[in-house]
Amino acid sequence: MTEPNGPGAAWTEERGTSDEGKALSEPKGRAAVWTDEGGREERASERGGKTAGQSAPEASKFIVCAPLRPEARAVRRGLGGRGEVRRTGYGPARAAEQAGQLRDVAFGMLAIGGVGGGIAPGLKPGDLVAGTEVSRIGSAASVSCPSAPLLAGELRRAGLRATTGQIVTVDHLFRRGQQERLLSQGAVAADMESALLLDGAAGRPAVVLRAISDTPQRPLLSPWAVPGGIAALRSLRLAGPALARWAAACAPRRVLLAGPRSFCAGVERAIEIVERVLDRHGPPVYVRKQIVHNKVVVTDLEGRGAIFVDELDEVPDGAVVVFSAHGVSPEVRRDASERGLDAIDATCPLVAKVHAEARRFAAEGYQVALIGHGGHEEVEGTLGEAPQAMTLVETAADVDRLRPEDPDRVAYLMQTTLSLEEAGGIADALLERYPAARGPGSDDICYATTNRQLAVHAIAAESDLVLVAGSANSSNSRRLVETAQRAGTPAYLIDGPEDIELDWLAGASVVGLTAGASAPPAVVDQIIDALSGLGPVEVSERVVATESIRFGLPKELKR
Ligand code: SF4
């Protein structure tokens, strides 16, 4: 193949019922184009998700443009009949002509598939690039394909090497130095048709997928050309099922946001502490354990010079070390002090409150049951406050195993990020067995955990699917998934749009969306943006509480 197509070849202040969906934004991206064309979005929702102006078969008609015969054959074999494959011809002129014809065709969604030239370092023949932006060389304008991360994630789960990025459509095979120039402008791959073919989508959902046939290290006019082309066509064929799932997921949707969601005051404070320490001392700054349980946050801080370690013995003598928001036991503080480390404590004040309660109950001679999950850093830190007086209780059955010396001197505390329902059940079992048991002065399950669970519960019943932005090791995020599932709605934890499985979306016209207390708000925006690449998206929010609490910084950082 390859030759023609590759270039070069305070707690919550209010908790209530402001539950009327509040419009947050106009439909985004391609969605806006659809809506502009005669108010289709509204009618579509009335008609169960069909695209107004088109019959149901037309709205679900999936067209794939593949420039050359071998590309069309590879795509057709991969799709197995789940779409109409059009061979559109080589080069910009034919692509422009085909786009003009496509505008007169009734269809629902468009994919452009073919081989292309790799520009970004690290790409190999056979790798797949889903274009997030597609532009024509020399033009400042580009077309966004917001659902590219969804397709790339699906391809990776299918075992293919896939990435996302900017694809540039060039007019000729690469000239000397052109790849370097395109790379400096952010391009990942190049082809000779996509930017023009995309015009044919006319606002309908579209993706561009290029399988890399050649790279600067393995150029077209070299012995690598044939194996590179074969690898690319093979990947294109294997990508077929993912393209078909992408098409099946395309539909108008409503996104129902849970409010509040995302960062809590303790997480904002912990991140700010690391940022300030980096500013003050310069990198590297050591952080014991993940500062908060979120991949995106940790990766970002690592990029700025933070080094995350599991234990203090990985920190060089005399270095600055930050303790995470989940807290540490007194033993860790002692170790840091004996080693002469400059320790700065980012423990959330609400976790510190539970530590103080543990010390107080232990000093008063109580046996303390800590309701929580074994192995969680917060639980380890709290247990470390009074190890001789505390017992971990993970289930109601654990209550039966308690053997307090004095049944009248039993107390209980809770991990801050538990499920309200589950923790309440365990506390009830404990009170039933030890009616005189003392609980915390104020709720241990913090305001942020409580509000986010109430909010996700409020949207779950109305949603066909709930997505929770958060990492797998985030306790509060996992509890949000469980809360939605308990309400009878399928719910999934995702770090970002690339984790969304397209099958989840097929038939889901209302998607509930929230984020754990450690997940950045930007991830929620990225998810909405990606969904808008599958069809018009109407965003509304259900707010059950407003939050205004802020925590001050540690004294070392105020000086
Ligand atoms: S979830 Fe609650 S306890 Fe944990 S950091 Fe946030 S405010 Fe603090």
Helix content range of the residues, please? 25-40%
Largest sheet geometry: 6 strands, mixed
Distinct helical segment count: 22
Low-confidence stretches: 1-52
What's the β-strand tally? Answer: 21
Form type: elongated
> What is the CA-atom radius of gyration, in angstroms?
28 Å
Structural class: alpha/beta
In percent terms, what proportion of residues is strand? 15-25%
Bound molecules: iron/sulfur cluster
- Going across the major beta sheet, what is the strand order? 1-21-10-20-18-19
> Mean pLDDT, as a whole number?
89
Looking at how many chains there are and whether they match, the oligomeric state comes to single chain
Cα end-to-end separation: 66 Å
In short:
The protein is built from 22 helices and 21 strands. The longest helix has 17 residues, at 265-281.
How are the secondary structure elements laid out?
Layout: E1 12-25, H1 30-36, H2 40-46, H3 56-59, E2 62-66, H4 69-79, E3 84-87, H5 91-102, E4 109-118, E5 128-136, E6 142-144, H6 148-157, E7 162-169, H7 178-184, E8 187-191, H8 194-197, E9 206-214, H9 225-238, H10 240-249, E10 253-259, H11 265-281, E11 285-288, H12 295-303, E12 306-309, E13 320-323, H13 330-338, E14 342-345, H14 349-363, E15 367-371, H15 377-383, E16 390-393, H16 396-400, E17 410-414, H17 420-433, H18 447-460, E18 465-469, H19 475-486, E19 491-494, H20 502-505, E20 510-515, H21 521-532, E21 537-547, H22 555-558
Parallel strand pairs: 2-3, 2-4, 4-9, 5-7, 7-8, 10-20, 10-21, 11-12, 11-13, 13-14, 15-16, 15-17, 18-19, 18-20
Antiparallel strand pairs: 1-21, 4-8, 5-6, 5-9
The protein binds iron/sulfur cluster.
